[in-house]
Amino acid sequence: MKAFKRLLFSGMGLTLLLILSGCVQTNKQGQPTGQGFVYQFLVAPMSQVIKYFASDLGLGFGLAIILVTVIVRLIILPLGLYQSWNATYQSEKRNYLSPIFTPINERMKNAETQEEKLAAQQALMAAQKENGISMLGGVGCLPLLIQMPFFSALFYAARYTKGIAESSFLGINLGQQSMILIVVVGVLYYIQSLLSLVGLDEEQKEQMKKMIYVSPLMIVIFSLTAPAGVTLYWVVGGFVQILQQFIINFFIRPYMKKRVAEEYEKNPPKTMSANSYLKDVTPKASQAIDNRPNNNKKKKNRNAGKQRSR
């Protein structure tokens, strides 16, 4: 279930990044029409800033894309950290409560019938509710939705700003596909995926190991159909993602681990319903009645023998 949720959110984020959720109005060729709130208030200003860095300051379009991407990503970084803050809090609570959840997960894994599996799922939901665990793992959609217009604006600014397609950066033609940048962006997102495993318990790591290739693979596929200017924007985004993951691993997670431990020391986890997590093997009343020795029958048989002997 956890792996599915992470796959869902990862796929949703990258797919929204590509499709852009209709944030920018485009024509049949996929080019922006210049209409719409996001284009007028985000794409157009970003394009102007890119041109300012590239032409007015003479930095070139490659460095201009890097600077604008860094500035915008740092502006929206608090939203990403807020989302990670909540998710890490829930993750550490799950780690602390693993002695309660592990037997239920084992029961769910070893369920022989659909009824047993459903009962285990209900027990897991009850245990999570009793101990204040979010069903979505603390990953809210609102911060992601707020960030999406900025990602959309960066995407269109990097792809359609006039002058980018005809320029180069470190010998790379920004208007054409670049295998060098594609390899770099794949490696960066793979490193970020590996860093996301730090601090997780063994069960979560085993589930996440299946997922570490999803994000790098999807970003590589998207980059294969994009010009180098867009891939360069994704490369910078990969560095920012790694920076954010370092902040989570070495600052947020240790703090959350300490906070959760202190919270449960003051208010111990609720284990009152632990007995309900175990499979009930007590025979039902009807079974107990059917399995009782039939004393009347034995008595009748004994009397019948006596009557024959007479």
UniProtKB/TrEMBL annotation:
It holds the Pfam family 60KD_IMP. The keyword Membrane applies. Residues 266-310 are annotated as: Disordered. Its main location: membrane. One of its GO terms (molecular function) is membrane insertase activity. It is a multi-pass membrane protein. CDD domains: 5TM_YidC_Alb3. GO terms for biological process: protein insertion into membrane; protein transport. InterPro entries: YidC/ALB3/OXA1/COX18, YidC/Oxa/ALB_C, YidC/YidC1/YidC2_Firmicutes, YidC_ALB_C. The keyword Protein transport applies. Residues 295-310 have a biased composition (Basic residues). HAMAP family: YidC_type2. Belongs to the OXA1/ALB3/YidC family. Type 2 subfamily. Required for the insertion and/or proper folding and/or complex formation of integral membrane proteins into the membrane. Involved in integration of membrane proteins that insert both dependently and independently of the Sec translocase complex, as well as at least some lipoproteins. This is Membrane protein insertase YidC. It comes from Streptococcus gordonii. The lineage of its organism: Bacteria, Bacillati, Bacillota, Bacilli, Lactobacillales. The gene is yidC.
